[in-house]
Design a protein that fits this description.
Blueprint: H1 4-26, E1 34-35, H2 37-44, H3 48-60, E2 64-67, E3 71-74, H4 79-100, H5 106-124, H6 128-143, H7 149-171, H8 176-191, H9 195-223
Antiparallel strand pairs: 1-3, 2-3
Helix pairs in contact: 1-3, 2-3, 4-7, 4-9, 5-6, 5-8, 7-9, 8-9
Length: 228
């Protein structure tokens, strides 16, 4: 039998984990941001024990890193890490499209069309959190048709890890038209029941923001003053 204290402790860990994770993904806690246990504990109204456990979980997801003699901080963003994650996402999400494609119904495609319109409308209105939610629902409507719980689990894990980069790409110049065009190509291929075009659209959906992020990261690196 699970005690009340154990259940309460688990809830505290989950609360700290979710709130800290959300702050990292949205950029409220930027790369390199120090994650001091006493501050996180005070913010969540818990002791240091659930904070320590929550940080361990986030470190396992590579969103947090431990630095000797300094404690935990938000993991840095690097282009090689992003490119590596995107290569894996391309493989996994193309496979999810391949598996889910035959089972997409006309109703599914209508829902995707509605979500696509919502994404552009919400972006223009400055409602960015709702844009990200609509974007996620657009993609996972297809992926959930794949019928593979493990594939979905891995895609979700890597998706969340790369979400920080994707949000940067949107801040760095992705316009509503670019956002819409990428997904319009994907949806048009699915409506036309053309699997090869759908797969190519998914590939381009990753490669476009990847090029933008690489360019901006290089610009930022060259603008940094030299040490010394």
């Amino acid at each position: 039998m699970v005690s009340h204290e154990a259940g309460t402790a688990e809830s505290a860990v989950e609360r700290v984990y979710r709130s800290t994770r959300e702050a990292i993904i949205t950029g409220d806690y930027p790369p390199g941001f120090p994650l001091r246990m006493n501050e996180l504990a005070a913010r969540s109204g818990v002791s240091s024990i659930p904070v320590r456990e929550a940080l361990r979980r986030l470190e396992a997801e590579r969103l947090v890193e431990s630095v000797a003699n300094k404690g935990a901080r938000v993991a840095d963003l690097s282009f090689p890490d992003l490119a590596d994650a995107y290569r894996l996402r391309i493989l996994l999400e193309i496979e999810a499209v391949r598996l889910g494609f035959p089972d997409l119904t006309d109703e599914d495609l209508t829902r995707m069309r509605r979500l696509l319109k919502d994404m552009t409308r919400l972006w223009r209105a400055g409602r960015t959190e709702e844009v990200h939610e609509a974007h996620r629902r657009f993609h996972f409507l297809v992926y959930e048709k794949a019928g593979s719980t493990w594939l979905l689990h891995v895609i979700r894990s890597i998706w969340d890890h790369t979400e920080r980069h994707r949000r940067l790409a949107m801040r760095w110049g992705a316009e509503p038209e670019d956002l819409g065009r990428s997904h319009e190509e994907m949806l048009a291929a699915m409506v036309g029941r053309d699997l090869d075009k759908a797969i190519e659209a998914v590939r381009q959906h990753f490669e476009r923001p990847l090029r933008l992020i690489e360019s901006r990261m290089r610009d930022a690196a060259s603008a940094d003053p030299p040490n010394g």
